[in-house]
Design a protein that fits this description.
Layout lengths: L15 H6 L21 H9 L3 H5 L1 H18 L24 E7 L2 E5 L8 E2 L5 E2 L4 E6 L5 H13 L4 H6 L2 E6 H7 L3 H9 L2 H4 L5 H12 L3 E6 L9 H8 L7 E6 L3 H6 L5 E8 L1 H14 L5 H8 L6 H6 L4 H11 L11 H19 L13 H20 L3 E3 H8 L10 E3 L12 E4 L2 H14 L4 H10 L12 H9 L4 H4 L9 H11 L3 H13 L8 E4 L2 H11 L8 E6 L6 H13 L5 E6 L7 H14 L7 E5 L12 H11 L11 E5 L4 H11 L7 E3 L7 H13 L4 E3 L38 H4 L27 H15 L7 H4 L5 H9 L7 E3 L7 H13 L5 E3 L6 H10 L8 E3 L6 E2 L1 H12 L6 E3 L4 E4 L2 H13 L4 E3 L4 E4 L5 H5 L4 H11 L10 E3 L4 E4 L2 E5 L15 E3 L16 H14 L5 E3 L4 E3 L3 H12 L6 E3 L4 E3 L7 H11 L5 E3 ...
Helix pairs in contact: 4-5, 13-14, 16-17, 18-19, 18-20, 20-22, 22-24, 24-25, 24-26, 26-27, 28-29, 29-30, 30-31, 31-35, 35-36, 36-37, 37-38, 38-39, 42-43, 43-44, 44-45, 45-46
Protein name: NACHT domain-containing protein
Keywords: ATP-binding, Nucleotide-binding
InterPro entries: LRR_dom_sf, NACHT_NTPase, P-loop_NTPase
Length: 1233
C-alpha cells in the first residue's frame, strides 16, 4: 500500500457496545421500546386525539426518526469517554464530551488558508479580500488521526439536535450520521446498513416496508437532509451506492459533510466537494481554559500560566500535543509530577517522547498494582518488550498510512491485548446494532505510533539483515524534508550506536543533508562521525573537486564535526558565504574545526551574486581568513567575492590586511601554500600591498588575480613581483588596465574604463596595431552569436565575391606590420605592457599566462605577440573570448618564432575567419615547431577559395600538434559553380560524397587527440556534415587515440537530426576499418533511431569486435526503435559484449529504467570479456543503478564497488575462483593498461 494512503480516523466518541450494557434510556440506541401495535379501527383516532397528535402527523415516517435522532445525538454528544486511559485523572463531567469540543478549523482555499468557526461550515463566507464564497452543499473536513474528527461530527449533530445553531436547525430537517468504517466492515449496501444495522426498528416506524417509506422520504428532502460521513474507508470494500454518495451522484441535493485524514482519498474526493476544511485539534484558547480548570482543581492558581509558558511559542512536539483532545491532559500530569516543569521544547525529540511514554506507562502499571519502574528509573522489561512488539505493527501501519489497529492485529503482534492497557491506545466508538464486534484502537497522537516504530527498529539494530529490511519500510527515511519522526527518534534512541544505521545506508540514496540531520540526532560520537566520514568518502567527497558547503546552521555544524574527525575524507572545500540566516556560533565552530583539520589542502571562500557583504561581515570574514591561511598543510587558497553594485574602494581593506599579515610571515605562516586566487575589487594600493607581502612567501608559485581593474600602477607592481618571485603561472582573465578604447570591448562583458584607476589612452600611442583591427570583414558577420541560427550565416547583400577575395589578400599583404612593441609609446598607455615585458625577461620563469577576456587594445595585442615571440619560458597561453581578428593575429603571427610555446587556447564564439586569415593561420601553424595543443573552440570559418583547402591540407601534413580542439566550430563553404552548387539542398548523401571525393589526401599522423564536439560543415548555408558523417573525412588522422564526435545538446529541437540504421552501421564499419588504434570514443548527445534494431545492432556488434576501444562515452545517448520505444540498453549491451578491451563506459544522463538497467547488468555479468569495467552513471537514477548492481552481483560472478565521485562511478570486478586463471588475467590487465 502506498505511503500516502489515508489513515483511519481516531479519537472516536464512546462506543455503543458500552451503552448497551447500561440500563435502557429513552435516548439510547436500542433502549427506545417499540410502539404498541395500533389497531385499525375508530378508537385509534380517539386515542390520538387524547394524546394531541393528528393522524396526518403520525402518518409521516420522518417525525419519529427525527425525535429519535435528536435524543440520540444529545445523549452521545453529552457523554465523556466511557473508558479514558488509565493514566488520566478524574475530570469534571462533560470536560471531554463532544458537546464542549472547540475545534480549530482552517479553510483551505487555492493560494490561501484562513481560520473559521464551526458554525461557518455550511454557510456563505466573505474573505478579507472581499471574495464571497457561496454556501456549500458538500464539505470535506481533513484532520490527522486523533485530532477529533468524530467529536466534531457529533458536535455538529448536537448543534442541530439542541437548536443551538438556529440556521442549522431551521435549514435541516433530518441529520444522519453514517460511520464509514462500520459500513465497510458490514459488507452491506448503504440503504441496507441504515435499515438493518444502524437504527432500531422503532426509530423507523412499524410495518414491513417502514424503511422503504423512510428512504423515499429522505430522498425527497433534498437540501433539508444532512448526512455526516465519518471515518476512513477502502475503495474496494465500499458498495456502489456508498461510492455514489461520496462522489455526489446519490442524493446530489443533500448537504454532505465528510471527515477524512489528509492524503490520497481526500485528494480523490476534492473534485466532488465545494469546500475543504482542515482540523488541527483544539483551539488554543479552549486549551487555556481547560488547563486553568485543571490546575484550579489541583489548587495551583498560577499553574496554567506557567504551563502555557513551558509549551514554548513556536511549533514543537509539546505545543502540537497540547492541542490534541487527550494530549493536554498528559502534559498537565507531566507538568504536575515534574514540579512545575516540562521537557524543554528545544530538547532532542526522542527525550521528549521518552518522558511522555514513561509517564503514561508507569502510571498505568501503578494502577494495575505492578512496579512502575526498575532500577535506574527505567520502565520494566516486559513493558519494553510489549512496546517493541507493538512497534513492529506500528511500523507497517505508518508505512501504509494507517494509525488504526484492529483487535486481531494487536493480538497477533503482541500475543494478547495487554498492550492496550499501557495508556497510549484508546478504543474507537461503534454505532451499529448487533452482537459483539471486533474493536479497533488508535494511538492518542500519530507521533506515538512513529515513536513506537522507531523503538522497535532500535531493538533489532544488532541484526544487520533485519535492520536493513526494516529500514526500507520507514517512509521518507532518506528525505530531509519528510515530516516523519521515525528517523530522528531512531537515531536519538541509538545514541552512540548510531553508526550501526550509517553502515546500512547506501551511498546512492543518502545525501549530505540527510547524513548531518541523522548525525545531529544521534550525537557526535567518535564511531558515528567515523561512519559518516566513510559514507562521505563513498559518495565521492574528497575524491573529485571541491565540496561545496553552505552557511546554513545545520550544514556548518555537521561539517565541523566531520572536520574535527581524524577520518575526515575532505581534501578541498568551498564555503559559499550567504548574508541571510547565518549563525555566528556555527560559523565559528566551522572555522575552528577547519583550522585544526589536517586533511583539507584546498579552501575556497566565495559569495553568491547579489549577497553583498556589509562592512561588519567583511571584518568577521577577515578573522576567518586569518585562521585558515596559516594551516600547515594548506596548498591552495581562493577568495572570491562577487560584487554587483559599486562599492567603496576600501570595503575589502580588512581582507587585504589579513592576507598580507599572513603572507608576510613567509614559510613560518604558510609553509606549503603554492596557489593563491584572489577575485576582489582591488585598487592599485591594495594590489601593491599584496605584492609586497608575496615577496616574502617563496612557496606561492601560482597566482590568480582575475577581473582586476586597478589601473597601470597595480599591474606594474605585479610585473615587479614577477621579476622578484619565481611565479610559474599567472591568471589575469577578465582584467583591464588603464585603457579606454573606442572599438567594441571583448566578450567578457567588462566595461572598459569603469574602474576608478583607469585612464584614457595616451594620444601618442602607436597606430600600427590598428591595422589588425581594420582587416576587412563584412558587417553581417560582426559579433556573431552561437545560437542555433548561427549554423546558416547570410552573405552581405551586394558584396562582389571577386573583389572581396582580392581585397582580403591585398590588405593582408599591405597592412600586416612586423610584431614589435613600441616600448616608449606603449608603456604610458596600459599596465599590460609591464606584464608582457616581464614575461620576455629571461630571468622570469612564468610558464603559463592567462589573459582570457581581458580588455586588450591594439598595442597590448602587439606587445603580447612580441612576448610570445621572445619568451623562452612561456609554455601555455590562454587568450579566450576574443571578439576581433586584431586580438589574436599578433599571437598567431608570432608562433613560427616562438621558442617554447606548447599550448595555445584561442577559444571564442565570436571569431570569424575568411579565406585570407584562414590561409595565414594555416601557414603560421604549419611553421610552429613547439606547439602541441591548439584550441579554437567556437570559431567560424567561411571558405570560398580552393587555395584555403590546400593551405589546410598542407598544415595537417606538416603540423606537430598532438591535441587539436575544434569543438563547436562552424565551417561554411560557399560554392557558386560546379556540382556542389547544382546539388543544393536536395540530397545530403550526394553532397557528402562530392565533398569526400574533392578532399585531397593528407597524413596527419602527429594528431593523437581530436575533439570535434558540435563541429559542423555547411555547404551554401546548409549543414551537411556533423557527428557520424564527419568520420570518413578523418581517414588522414591515422594515429588517433581519442576522438570526440558528440553532438550539440542545446540545439534547436525542430532541426534535430537522427542517426538512422544505415548511418550507424556505416560509422561503426568505418571505425573498425580505418581507426584500429582508436582507444577513446565520445558519442555524447547522439539521437539514434533504428527502424530494424535487431538487424542493425547485429551488424554493429560484428564491426565492434574489430575495434580496440577501451573507453566509450555515450553520455545523454538516446536510442529508439521504429515505435519510438527507448532501447538504449540494447545498444549498450551490444557495445559491452563486442568490445573485448573495454575498461570504461560512461552513460551519464542516459534514461535507463530499472528493468533496462537490470538487462544491461546481466549482459555485463555474462557477456563482458574483460576482468574490470568502470562505469560512470551520473544522472541515471538511483533505482536504475541499484538494479544494475543487483543484476551484476547475482550469482556471485562479479563484485561491484561504489567509487562515488561527481560521475557516480562504479567498478565491476569479475570474480575468478581459479588462482591460475586469476594470475593470467592480472598479467593481461597490466599489459592492457
Amino acid at each position: 500500500m502506498p505511503k500516502e494512503q489515508i489513515v483511519s480516523p481516531v479519537a472516536q466518541p464512546p462506543g455503543m457496545t458500552r451503552l448497551q450494557q447500561r440500563s435502557p434510556s429513552p435516548c439510547s440506541l436500542d433502549g427506545v421500546p417499540p410502539p404498541p401495535p395500533q389497531p385499525h379501527y375508530i378508537s385509534t383516532l380517539r386515542a390520538n386525539a387524547r394524546r394531541g397528535n393528528s393522524p396526518e402527523k403520525d402518518k409521516d415516517p420522518l417525525t419519529a426518526l427525527q425525535r429519535f435522532l435528536r435524543a440520540l445525538y444529545r445523549e452521545l454528544a453529552s457523554r465523556d469517554q466511557p473508558q479514558p486511559p488509565a493514566w488520566a485523572p478524574e475530570l469534571p463531567p462533560g470536560t471531554l464530551s463532544p458537546a464542549s469540543f472547540q475545534p480549530a478549523l482552517r479553510l483551505v482555499a487555492p493560494g490561501e488558508s484562513a481560520t473559521m468557526r464551526m458554525d461557518q461550515l455550511l454557510t456563505a463566507l466573505r474573505m478579507d479580500e472581499g471574495i464571497l464564497l457561496e454556501a456549500p452543499r458538500r464539505v470535506l473536513i481533513e484532520g490527522l488521526p486523533g485530532s477529533g474528527k468524530t467529536s466534531l461530527a457529533l458536535r455538529l449533530l448536537h448543534s442541530w439536535a439542541t437548536h443551538s445553531d438556529p440556521w442549522l436547525s431551521n435549514a435541516i430537517h433530518i441529520a444522519l450520521l453514517i460511520p464509514l468504517r462500520e459500513l465497510r466492515s458490514s459488507g452491506q449496501s448503504l440503504s441496507q446498513f441504515i435499515g438493518k444495522s444502524l437504527f432500531p426498528r422503532a426509530a423507523l416506524g412499524s410495518g414491513k416496508d417502514s424503511f422503504s417509506r423512510v428512504w423515499r422520504r429522505l430522498s425527497a428532502l433534498e437540501e433539508k437532509l444532512m448526512i455526516v460521513l465519518d471515518g476512513d474507508y477502502d475503495d474496494e470494500l465500499l458498495t456502489g451506492d456508498a461510492t455514489e454518495l461520496l462522489e455526489g451522484r446519490l442524493l446530489p441535493d443533500a448537504r454532505v459533510v465528510i471527515t477524512l485524514c489528509p492524503g490520497r482519498r481526500a485528494n480523490q474526493l476534492a473534485p466532488f466537494v465545494q469546500r475543504r476544511v482542515l482540523l488541527t485539534g483544539l483551539q488554543l484558547n479552549h486549551v487555556a481554559r481547560l488547563t486553568q480548570q485543571y490546575f484550579l482543581g489541583k489548587r495551583i492558581p498560577d499553574g496554567a500560566s506557567r504551563f502555557l509558558d513551558a509549551l514554548g511559542e513556536e511549533s514543537n512536539p509539546l505545543r502540537d500535543l497540547a492541542t490534541w483532545p487527550l494530549g493536554w491532559i498528559l502534559l498537565c500530569i507531566m507538568f504536575e509530577e515534574g514540579g512545575g516543569t516540562l521537557p524543554s521544547p528545544d530538547a532532542p525529540v526522542h527525550e521528549i517522547y521518552n518522558a511522555m511514554f514513561k509517564c503514561m506507562v508507569s502510571r498505568c502499571l501503578a494502577r494495575r498494582g505492578q512496579s512502575p519502574t526498575e532500577s535506574g528509573g527505567e520502565l520494566p522489561t516486559h513493558a519494553k518488550k510489549l512496546m517493541a512488539e507493538f512497534g513492529k505493527l506500528a511500523l507497517s501501519g505508518v508505512n501504509a498510512g494507517c494509525f488504526v489497529y484492529q483487535e486481531t492485529e494487536i493480538k497477533t503482534a503482541c500475543h494478547g491485548l495487554e498492550i492496550t492497557e499501557l495508556g497510549f491506545l484508546t478504543r474507537g466508538l461503534q454505532f451499529g446494532r448487533g452482537g459483539r464486534k471486533l474493536e479497533h484502537f488508535h494511538a492518542i497522537h500519530p507521533a506515538f505510533s512513529e515513536y513506537l516504530a522507531a523503538y522497535y527498529v532500535s531493538s533489532i539494530v544488532h541484526y544487520s539483515n533485519i535492520l536493513q529490511r526494516e529500514m526500507e519500510e520507514i517512509p521518507g527515511f532518506l528525505h530531509p524534508d519528510t515530516p516523519s519522526l521515525i528517523p530522528r527518534v531512531l537515531m536519538g534512541l541509538l545514541g552512540r550506536k548510531g553508526f550501526l544505521v550509517f553502515e546500512q545506508l547506501c551511498p546512492l540514496d543518502v545525501s549530505i543533508r540527510v547524513l548531518f540531520t541523522l548525525l545531529r540526532a544521534c550525537g557526535p560520537g567518535d564511531a558515528n562521525v567515523a561512519a559518516v566520514c566513510r559514507l562521505l568518502r563513498c559518495t565521492g567527497v574528497g575524491s573529485s573537486g571541491a565540496q561545496v558547503v553552505h552557511t546554513s546552521p545545520g550544514e556548518l555544524l555537521g561539517w565541523s564535526l566531520v572536520l574535527s574527525s581524524a577520518a575526515c575524507p575532505l581534501q578541498a572545500l568551498e564555503l559559499i558565504v550567504q548574508t541571510e540566516n547565518v549563525d555566528p556560533e556555527a560559523l565559528d565552530k566551522f572555522f575552528c574545526a577547519l583550522a585544526e583539520n589536517e586533511s583539507v589542502k584546498a579552501v575556497r571562500i566565495s559569495s553568491l551574486l547579489g549577497h553583498e557583504l556589509s562592512a561588519t561581515q567583511v571584518i568577521k570574514l577577515s578573522k576567518y581568513v586569518a585562521l585558515t591561511v596559516p594551516k600547515p598543510r594548506l596548498q591552495t587558497f581562493e577568495l572570491v567575492i562577487t560584487c554587483v553594485d559599486e562599492i567603496p574602494p576600501d570595503r575589502f581593506q580588512p581582507l587585504v590586511n589579513s592576507l598580507s599579515a599572513c603572507l608576510s610571515q613567509g614559510e613560518i605562516s604558510c609553509p606549503k601554500l603554492s596557489k593563491l586566487v584572489l577575485d576582489l575589487s582591488l585598487n592599485s594600493s591594495q594590489l601593491s600591498q599584496l605584492c609586497a607581502a608575496l615577496e616574502e612567501t617563496p612557496s606561492v608559485s601560482v597566482l590568480h588575480l582575475p577581473h582586476l581593474g586597478c589601473g597601470a600602477d597595480g599591474l606594474r607592481a605585479l610585473a615587479a613581483l614577477m621579476r622578484v618571485r619565481p611565479l610559474l603561472a599567472l591568471n589575469l582573465s577578465g582584467s583591464w588596465g588603464a585603457l579606454v578604447r573606442d572599438d567594441p570591448p571583448s566578450s567578457s562583458g567588462v566595461s572598459v574604463g569603469s574602474s576608478s584607476g583607469s585612464t584614457e589612452r595616451a594620444k601618442g600611442s602607436s597606430p600600427k596595431g590598428s591595422s589588425y583591427f581594420s582587416l576587412p570583414r563584412s558587417h553581417t558577420y560582426h559579433s556573431l552569436s552561437r545560437g542555433p541560427a548561427s549554423t546558416t550565416l547570410p552573405r552581405a547583400p551586394g558584396t562582389p565575391k571577386d573583389d572581396k577575395r582580392l581585397s582580403d589578400t591585398a590588405l593582408f599583404q599591405k597592412y600586416c606590420p612586423p610584431i614589435v612593441c613600441e616600448a616608449l609609446e606603449h608603456r604610458t598607455a596600459s599596465g599590460f605592457h609591464a606584464i608582457f615585458e616581464s614575461a620576455k625577461d629571461p630571468n622570469v620563469c612564468v610558464r603559463a599566462l592567462n589573459v582570457s577576456k581581458c580588455a586588450l587594445g591594439a598595442d597590448d595585442a602587439l606587445c603580447l605577440g612580441d612576448a610570445v615571440r621572445k619568451s623562452r619560458s612561456l609554455a601555455a597561453l590562454r587568450l579566450e573570448g576574443a571578439s576581433r581578428l586584431g586580438e589574436v593575429l599578433p599571437v598567431i603571427l608570432a608562433l613560427p618564432e616562438s621558442p617554447g610555446l606548447q599550448l595555445l587556447d584561442l577559444a571564442s564564439p565570436r571569431i570569424v575567419f575568411m579565406d585570407a586569415p584562414t590561409q595565414l593561420l594555416c601557414h603560421a601553424l604549419s611553421r610552429s615547431p613547439s606547439l602541441r595543443l591548439l584550441g579554437l573552440d567556437g570559431w567560424t570559418f567561411r571558405v570560398e577559395e580552393d587555395v584555403t583547402l590546400g593551405a589546410l591540407t598542407s598544415f595537417l601534413r606538416s603540423t606537430e600538434l598532438r591535441d587539436l580542439v575544434l569543438s563547436h566550430c562552424r565551417v561554411h563553404i560557399t560554392c557558386v559553380e560546379g556540382r556542389l552548387a547544382r546539388l543544393g539542398k536536395r540530397d545530403d548523401y550526394e553532397v557528402r560524397a562530392e565533398l569526400l571525393s574533392s578532399l585531397p589526401e593528407f597524413d596527419a599522423s602527429s594528431v593523437v587527440f581530436l575533439r570535434l564536439a558540435g563541429f559542423a560543415v555547411a555547404v551554401n548555408e546548409h549543414v551537411v556534415l556533423r557527428g557520424p558523417h564527419i568520420l570518413p573525412f578523418l581517414r588522414g588522422f591515422t594515429r588517433l587515440s581519442e576522438l570526440d564526435l558528440s553532438l550539440d545538446q542545446h540545439g534547436d529541437p525542430d532541426k534535430e537530426e537522427f542517426v538512422d540504421d544505415k548511418t550507424l552501421v556505416h560509422f561503426i564499419s568505418t571505425l573498425s576499418q580505418h581507426f584500429r588504434s582508436l582507444q577513446t570514443l565520445r558519442l555524447g548527445g547522439w539521437r539514434i533511431k533504428l527502424e530494424e534494431p535487431e538487424r542493425s545492432l547485429r551488424a554493429v556488434g560484428r564491426a565492434l569486435r574489430l575495434c580496440s576501444l577501451s573507453h566509450l562515452r555515450a553520455d545523454n545517448l538516446s536510442v529508439t526503435d521504429g515505435g519510438r520505444n527507448a532501447i538504449e540498453h540494447c545498444f549498450l549491451q551490444t557495445a559491452v559484449a563486442s568490445l573485448g578491451l573495454l575498461s570504461w563506459l560512461a552513460i551519464e544522463g542516459v534514461g535507463l529504467q530499472p528493468h533496462q538497467a537490470a538487462t544491461l547488468g546481466r549482459a555485463i555479468r555474462d557477456r563482458f570479456a574483460g576482468s574490470t569495467l568502470r562505469i560512470s552513471a551520473q544522472d541515471v537514477g538511483a533505482e536504475a543503478i541499484k538494479a544494475l548492481i543487483g543484476a551484476v552481483q547475482e550469482g556471485a560472478k562479479a563484485e561491484v564497488t561504489y567509487l562515488g565521485g561527481a560521475g557516480c562511478n562504479l567498478r565491476i570486478q569479475r570474480v575468478v575462483k581459479n588462482h591460475k586463471i586469476r594470475g593470467r588475467l592480472r598479467r593481461f590487465t597490466s599489459l592492457k593498461d
